[in-house]
From TrEMBL:
Keywords: Cytoplasm, Hydrolase, Protein phosphatase. InterPro entries: LMW_PTPase, Ptyr_pPase, Ptyr_pPase_sf, Tyr_Pase_low_mol_wt_mml, Tyr_phospatase_low_mol_wt. CDD domains: LMWPTP. Residues 89-114 are annotated as: Disordered. Belongs to the low molecular weight phosphotyrosine protein phosphatase family. The lineage of its organism: Eukaryota, Fungi, Dikarya, Ascomycota, Pezizomycotina. SMART domains: LMWPc. It comes from Paecilomyces lecythidis. This is Low molecular weight phosphotyrosine protein phosphatase. Coiled coil: none annotated. It is found in: Cytoplasm. Residues 1-173 form the Phosphotyrosine protein phosphatase I domain.
Length: 180
């Protein structure tokens, strides 16, 4: 759902966003379409052109995207570990220096593509992006997106509201960053 909502809102800011994609930290739903409750929630809010098949995130995603945004702290931790292994494969001494410490880099699930060979995506909690375009000081210090899968339709509506808020905050953050 976050992918569809962000893509819809980002279309109003084409100069800020290149490519948008989404992936999970596990492969258990690989190639599955979105949950029907996700699709009905999106349609109720006017997003009718979303077509996506689930996939697992890869190390190449960390080299391709500028930002990778996690929905919750568990996924954030998984993504930070993968990011650290990508950084470590480029510079083993850098990995050793950062071992056991939280990364101060940020981002999660989607973003603009970057071709810089030394650049690695920022990994951050999606909820770290605040409505005013600011970002939470602590990586992972923001609000988590709750998984609505085991609940009713109302949970999907709540998640929709969250991802709209976070998408607007992230876009505001990118606008401020582009201005500076």
């Amino acid at each position: 759902m976050a992918h569809a909502v962000f893509r819809d809102l980002a279309a109003q800011h084409p100069s800020l966003i290149g490519e948008i994609d989404s992936a999970g930290t596990g492969a258990y739903h690989a190639l599955d379409p979105p949950d029907p409750r996700t699709m009905s929630t999106l349609r109720r809010h006017g997003i009718t052109d979303f077509d996506h098949a689930a996939r697992k995130i890869t190390k190449d995603d960390f080299r391709h995207f500028d930002y990778i945004l996690a929905m919750d702290k568990y996924n954030l931790s998984d993504l930070q570990r993968v990011r650290d292994s990508v950084v470590g494969s480029k510079n083993p001494s850098a990995a050793a220096r950062s071992a056991g410490m939280k990364t101060t880099r940020a981002s999660a699930a989607g973003g603009g593509g970057g071709a810089d060979g030394d650049k690695v995506a920022e990994v951050r909690l999606f909820g770290d992006f605040l409505p005013n375009g600011e970002v939470h000081q602590k990586v992972g210090g923001g609000e988590e997106v709750q998984d609505p899968y085991y609940g009713g339709q109302n949970g999907f509506e709540e998640v929709y509201g969250q991802v709209v808020r976070f998408s607007k905050g992230f876009l505001g953050y990118l606008e401020k960053k582009a201005e500076s």
